[in-house]
Amino acid sequence: MVTRLVLAVALTMSLVLAGAASFVYWRVKTALDQQLDDDLTTYQSSLDRAVRHGAQLPPGPSGSLQQVLGAHGRVLDSSHAIRHQMLLTPTERNSVAHGATFRHDVGSLLPITPDTLRLQAHRVTAGGRQRIVIAAVRRGHRDEALRELLAQLALASGLTLIAASYVGYRTARGALRPVERYRTAAATLADGEQSLRLDVPADRDNELTRLGHTLNHMLDRLEASAERERRFVADASHELRTPLTLMRAELDVALHRPRSAEELTETLRSVDTEVQRLIDLSNALLDLEELSSTGHITRAPAALTDLLDAAVTPHRPTAERAGRDLAVDTPSVTVDVDARWLRPAVSNLVDNALRHGEGTVRVAATVQEGVLSVCVTDEGPGFPPEFLPRAFDRFARAEASRTSEGSGLGLAFAHAVATAHSGTARADNAASGAAVTLRLPC
Question: 38 and 82: one domain?
């Protein structure tokens, strides 16, 4: 990662430096060329005047050269340095003779060549005859300045690139050091260290510290989830072991010696009861796991009165046998909920109230500002205070005042249904007994 970042910085800086160096070189070269062209044009004008008037050719700038050709290319006058050397090719002379102005450079900037010139030639009429006047100035100072500029730009760009790469490397290492610490800590976590937490500086607030806090929060939830799973497995094993042990004991007793038909029938009834208990527990676990793992509900309009009647009616025979009343108080409204899940949730609360409470079990529902509230109360002793914080945990039981009947999943299921509806579940002790309230948007 650090290497890629440094390479990216180096590549970006290379492009920026190349662009900046090219711009500087172009600006300096343009200025030097403009000065050289101005000198060449001035020198050319003075030569043209001298040729027209038949005067002696004037001297030009230091190192300048001149040459005058006849219409057929014969050298009529020339600087001593070039004598009879031809500065123009036949094609170039022919072009100038037809009225074109010709300018070009002799020699190159790189590699270094001697006698670099910039020359200009055009036609002049003197005494009715055509002459080709060539003016040339040396480019040595201009080329030397450009070569020095190239060297300085290359040196400065190289040093800047090295410095930028080093700073980028140190910055990347410093920025990614916390990430490496997090990676090392995650590797330790993968080795089974559950209590590990990342060391996040408290005096900073940036992307990495926020990442650290998020990871610590995730680790807290993972540890809590793992603890719940361990407790769930232990409790589920215990709950399943009890009916299986009873079934095994009943069968062992039945097989120990010959039994009458009545005794075998009683044994089978007992085994059937335990099998049904296992089925109910398995179904409750499957429903709870389905709801908790997916959290998916399908809302649809449902008549609240019909929904609660469907949840309460199956428990009326049990209430009558126990000499207890079941009261439902609900407005005749339509709510937008998932009846498939809400109906058994309310049914579980009513079953808990009948199983563990006393007196009248009341189901009261209200709808206010788009929120459905369903409260199930009884007239029993209520929840022990120490049980309330864990009332909605799986397999939780209020052992101090309630019997060990049931699986301990009813409240957990009701809480899961409320959560899936983006609502809440609350367990309290009312004035006359226990109260469990589900509040969910409708």
Answer: yes
Q: Residues 66-75, buried b or exposed e (16+ Cβ, 10 A)?
A: bbbbeeeeeb
Max distance between CA atoms of the chain, in angstroms, equals: 155
Return the CATH number at 238. Answer: 1.10.287.130
Strand partners, 78: 67
Distance CA 3, CA 169 (A): 8
* Closest-CA residue to 39 (of 105, 132, 104, 136): 136
Q: Is residue 94 part of a domain?
A: yes
DSSP state of 405: -
Instruction: Identify the residue whose tokens are 């920026």.
Output: 16
Burial state string for 320-354 with b = 16 or more CB within 10 A and e = fewer than 16: eeeebebebebeeeebebbbebbbbbbbbbbbbbb
Phi, psi of 193 (to 5 degrees): -80, 100
Residue 284 domain flag: yes
Q: Is residue 389 part of a domain?
A: yes
Q: Are 271 and 336 in a shared domain? A: no
Same domain, 325 and 272: no
Sheet of strand 434-441: strand arrangement: 326-329, 361-368, 371-377, 434-441, 424-429
pLDDT along the chain (442 residues), means of 10: 83 94 96 94 93 88 89 87 85 90 90 88 89 93 94 94 90 79 72 69 77 81 76 69 76 78 81 77 72 74 94 92 93 93 91 90 94 94 87 71 57 89 91 91 88
Residue 218 sits in which domain range?
207-289
H helical segments located in 257-362: 261-294, 304-312, 316-321, 339-356
Kindly state whether residues 217 and 310 are assigned to the same domain: no
Domain stop point among 289, 319, 341: 289
Contacts of 434 (CB under 8 A, 6+ apart): 353, 356, 357, 377, 378, 380, 382, 383, 427, 428
Asked if residue 283 and residue 249 are part of one domain, the reply reads yes
